[in-house]
Amino acid sequence: MIDTSPDMREQLLAADVSDVDAVIWTHDHADHTHGIDDLRQLMHLRDGTPVRGLARPFTRAQLEAKFHYVFHGRGGYPPTVAIEDLADRLIIGDIAITVADQPHGSISSAGMRFENGFHSIGYATDFNIMTSDMRALYTKLDVWVVDALRRAPHPTHPHLSEVLGWVGELGPKRTALVHMDHSMDYMRLVAELPQGVEPGYDGLEMVA
């Protein structure tokens, strides 16, 4: 699972998910972290075994500072998450994960490519510059899930025309736009986006 958004509980219930192999945090901003307390219920369902958590060192330090009790326990309550550094390459289950750091204003976020030997999925949220490492990470994907905040430029997020340009350059087979603000009307996007590009929505499932 990527990030612990404030509505994580509702998303897990809707997807009928009661356990995860790991949680990977892209960065420490509130909209990506503030559902973290609901991981405690997953820990209980695992008979008290903490959930595996991974984050880049800077993000990990920020998370541990803000949510110390989640990772180290407090007042007799055990830790909910066993946190570790997110490496450039790792394997979880049968999925190989490659990570690149993405400029996101004054900080960075973790961008990821997931591969199982047959299919590839890229996840790119919260960035404002496309680096050479990111281009290598996101080239020739089966599915690219990518931030497209709005139509107008933004200082810390990509805007729609930028993303469509990268889609043309990097060549994913399918692209789902996420992290959109209120100005991005779903039906208007469906009518005007090119083939292979679609707006994401809650509960969307994509098959490569």
UniProtKB/TrEMBL annotation:
<protein>
    <submittedName>
        <fullName>Phosphoribosyl 1,2-cyclic phosphate phosphodiesterase</fullName>
        <ecNumber>3.1.4.55</ecNumber>
    </submittedName>
</protein>
<dbReference type="InterPro" id="IPR036866">
    <property type="entry name" value="RibonucZ/Hydroxyglut_hydro"/>
</dbReference>
<dbReference type="InterPro" id="IPR001279">
    <property type="entry name" value="Metallo-B-lactamas"/>
</dbReference>
<dbReference type="GO" id="GO:0103043">
    <property type="term" value="F:phosphoribosyl 1,2-cyclic phosphate phosphodiesterase activity"/>
</dbReference>
<feature type="domain" description="Metallo-beta-lactamase">
    <location>
        <begin position="2"/>
        <end position="180"/>
    </location>
</feature>
<keyword id="KW-0378">Hydrolase</keyword>
<dbReference type="Pfam" id="PF12706">
    <property type="entry name" value="Lactamase_B_2"/>
</dbReference>
